[in-house]
């Protein structure tokens, strides 16, 4: 009888089921990150915003502009660090073959799909960085602190100052202008960055060198 047969179907334990679900999820993520049918694993939006982590991606135009600025500022063979600015990192990676190197410092471990260029970063521990990330080893650091608070900016500033040889490109709210000058010695640019979704807070860029953003 059918009822008897149903009793014989093996039931997975909840632990095994959870493990299986996790495996399928990882498989889906791996498949999703593969370049197929023209899909670019570095395109903005390939990893979705997580608002709980205060993530808001730049518009394509803004990300391109900031990436191009970083390449020029870094110079030939330059090293670029993107701190909490994954959409700029993704735009830089789209310029594959250009003469520069880049890494991404990010709290969101989904970006670990980018391999060795991904460095787990928590602004609450600004100098908790891998040993191979030597001080003053980047020609430019681009940073977009996740929160509009002086504490977040101050801690992120410690990381920026540790990493950069000198050049800083900071993206944060217009209300942070005074604190940005205080902690990083940066000045506001004329260029107005835009996000793929409109934010309530006015957003600006700040630099400490003669940039192409004015």
Automatic annotation (TrEMBL):
Location in the cell reads: Cytoplasm
Please name the PROSITE patterns in this protein's record: N6_MTASE
Record has Methyltransferase as a keyword: yes
Organism of origin = Pterocles burchelli
Q: Does the keyword Cytoplasm apply?
A: yes
Q: Which UniProt keywords apply?
A: Cytoplasm, Methyltransferase, Transferase
Record's catalysed reaction(s): L-lysyl-[protein] + 3 S-adenosyl-L-methionine = N(6),N(6),N(6)-trimethyl-L-lysyl-[protein] + 3 S-adenosyl-L-homocysteine + 3 H(+)
InterPro entries per UniProt:
DNA_methylase_N6_adenine_CS (IPR002052), Efm5/EEF1AKMT1 (IPR019369), Mlase_EEF1AKMT1/ZCCHC4 (IPR041370), SAM-dependent_MTases_sf (IPR029063)
* Name under which the protein is recorded: EFMT1 methyltransferase
Q: Which GO terms describe its cellular component?
A: cytoplasm
Instruction: State the Gene Ontology BP annotations.
Output: methylation
Q: Could you give a GO molecular-function term held by this entry?
A: nucleic acid binding
According to the lineage, what is the superkingdom?
Eukaryota
